[in-house]
Design a protein that fits this description.
The chain has 287 residues and is of the alpha+beta class. The chain folds into two domains: 3-88; 93-286, Endonuclease, Chain A, CATH 3.30.870. The chain contains 13 helices and eleven strands. The protein has helices spanning 8-14, 18-39, 45-88, 97-106, 120-124, 126-133, 149-155, 162-175, 179-182, 234-249, 256-261, 263-267, 273-281, and strands at residues 90-94, 111-116, 138-143, 183-187, 197-199, 202-205, 208-212, 219-223, 226-229, 252-254, 284-286. The strands form two sheets. It has a nine-stranded mixed β-sheet with strand order 1-9-6-5-2-3-4-10-11, sandwiched between helices. A two-stranded antiparallel ribbon has the order 7-8. Helix 2 (18-39) runs antiparallel to helix 3 (45-88) and helix 6 runs parallel beside helix 8. The chain is elongated. The two termini are 49 Å apart. The model has no long low-confidence stretch (mean pLDDT 85).
């Protein structure tokens, strides 16, 4: 049975607290008996005083045991939650992905995976990308670009993203000693359901949530929270496998030489976003 549908008594039995509850009932029964003795019209003052003291002592014991039982009950529920998080391999939950990425990129020494549509967040940590690329790490970037229907379904056709792309690409190129060998950028026509990064053995991901954009009044995808996976688990393997699957199915990639030849177009102020998108499309080759 699902734990959320269990009755209170079933939870008490599952948490091994039946002995506590039984003792509470026994103590309560003795306390009631002591009160009854106290209020009876007895002529023996010693028995009356003793029964009052006994009832008071039992009441204190009941409060202590009840408090202990409640704390154990809540602790067990919290432990079950933590056990579930641990079983999934989740190291922590975050609401500031940029801060987390900056921290991890500072110590990145092996590999970096990036995915996204607009690369807004990635462009905001460009300085750290340059530093990481300078350590000769291997970089994979998976993008659903603006010329694909999957992009337009999520963000529409009013997004200016080429500046973000150029910021990211140039940051890596500026830092890497051999960008053509160490950094591969692939473009996919598939929609991305998670915003996923991999920094060495850390997987950083979170689901996209569709909310209405306050500026353009369109429903767009934004991430709300991020979970960090640092240990191999089924969830870790699923997220890693999802990235690999889309990566392997991507049919085109950026050609760094062609990209460099289009630099003048990307830098011209009189070029429209469509012109710049077309220039980027002309910078790709089959995988």
């Amino acid at each position: 049975m699902d734990g959320d549908n269990m009755s209170l008594w079933m939870k008490i039995r599952a948490y091994k607290l039946t002995s506590n509850i039984s003792v509470l009932f026994v103590l309560f029964g003795f306390m009631v008996m002591s009160i009854v003795v106290y209020i009876l019209p007895l002529n023996n003052k010693i028995i009356t005083d003793l029964s009052l003291a006994f009832a008071t002592s039992l009441l204190a014991s009941i409060f202590c045991l009840a408090s202990e039982t409640y704390v154990r009950y809540r602790t067990y529920e919290n432990d079950k939650c933590l056990e579930g998080i641990e079983a999934l391999g989740i190291a922590d939950l975050h609401f500031d992905k940029q801060k987390l990425l900056v921290k991890l990129l500072t110590d990145c020494n092996e590999e970096l995976w990036i995915s996204g549509y607009r690369l807004i967040l990635t462009s905001q940590v460009a300085r750290y990308l340059t530093e990481a690329a300078g350590r000769n790490i291997r970089i994979k970037i998976l993008i659903t670009p603006p010329w694909e229907p999957a992009f337009e379904m999520v963000y529409g056709d009013c997004q200016r993203v080429i500046d973000n792309y150029i910021t990211v690409f140039d940051a890596i190129k500026r830092g890497s000693h051999n960008v053509t060998e160490l950094c591969e950028i692939r473009f996919t026509n598939k929609p991305l359901f998670n915003d996923t990064y991999k920094v060495d053995n850390h997987l950083i991901t979170g689901p996209y949530m569709h909310n209405r954009d306050e500026i353009n009044k369109r429903i767009t995808a934004n991430d709300f929270f991020t979970y960090e996976l640092t240990r191999k688990s089924r969830l870790y393997n699923l997220i890693e496998g999802e990235y690999d699957t889309i990566w392997n199915e991507a049919s085109i990639k950026l050609d760094w030489d062609k990209y460099e030849s289009k630099r003048s177009i990307f830098n011209r102020n009189d070029m429209t976003e469509t012109d710049r998108i077309n220039a980027l499309k002309e910078s790709v080759i089959p995988v």
